[in-house]
Design the sequence.
């Protein structure tokens, strides 16, 4: 996992307290804020994820504030049991949500989640546990099946994005899509694999996420 990234002028490092641990993160604040998105990273990833940082900066260009927070402390990230503990990741994501609600510039903003891989399961579980607080969820190559028992309780408009060549994950997302009762859409990007490393694939993800989040932030005011 990459351990460094150059911050933009509108970004700053933050620390969020959660149940006795200190979670390091990056807060991006565009000049005119239309909503805020918290990233739930996949297994083995965190605030320095180049893919999530790319998406975050695309969102910032559209006026969406972003929070890229490690959901595990560095020592915890070496514990494979915690890496795949969706309940724990969900609790940490909700701690991020409470932190946002304490920030003067963000507390009145609509909140969305962007989850990747196992982080998508945490995002959906968190959205189900706090249905009145979360306006939208975007899943990139996600594992929503790991939150299957919570899916019927999700009210937030949910976009599932899967690579067309990520065949095992397509079927998992199709099953989750049927279970979801909220406004929803499943988009399969042709030729893309799990990490969307193909030319233009991640750009497509970022544009889809931007459109979905903006639409739901603005229409739910």
Sequence:
């Amino acid at each position: 996992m990459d351990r460094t990234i150059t911050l933009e002028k509108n970004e700053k490092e933050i620390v969020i307290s959660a149940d006795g641990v200190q979670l390091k993160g990056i807060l991006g604040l565009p000049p005119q804020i239309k909503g805020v998105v918290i990233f739930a990273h996949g297994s083995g990833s965190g605030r320095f994820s180049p893919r999530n940082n790319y998406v975050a900066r695309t969102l910032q260009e559209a006026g969406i504030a972003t929070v890229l927070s490690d959901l595990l402390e560095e020592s915890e990230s070496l514990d494979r049991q915690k890496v795949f503990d969706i309940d724990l990741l969900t609790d940490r994501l909700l701690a991020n949500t409470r932190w946002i609600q304490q920030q003067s510039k963000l507390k009145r903003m609509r909140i969305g989640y962007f989850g990747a891989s196992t982080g998508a399961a945490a995002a959906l579980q968190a959205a189900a546990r706090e249905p009145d607080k979360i306006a939208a969820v975007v899943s990139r190559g996600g594992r929503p099946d790991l939150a299957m028992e919570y899916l019927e309780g999700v009210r937030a408009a949910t976009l599932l994005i899967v690579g067309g060549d990520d065949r095992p994950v397509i079927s998992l997302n199709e099953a989750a899509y049927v279970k979801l009762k909220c406004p929803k859409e499943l988009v399969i990007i042709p030729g893309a694999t799990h990490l969307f490393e193909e030319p233009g694939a991640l750009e497509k993800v970022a544009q889809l996420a931007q459109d979905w989040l903006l639409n739901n932030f603005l229409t739910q005011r």
In short: The first helix runs from residue 50 to 61. DSSP finds six helices and eight strands in the chain. The mean pLDDT is 94.
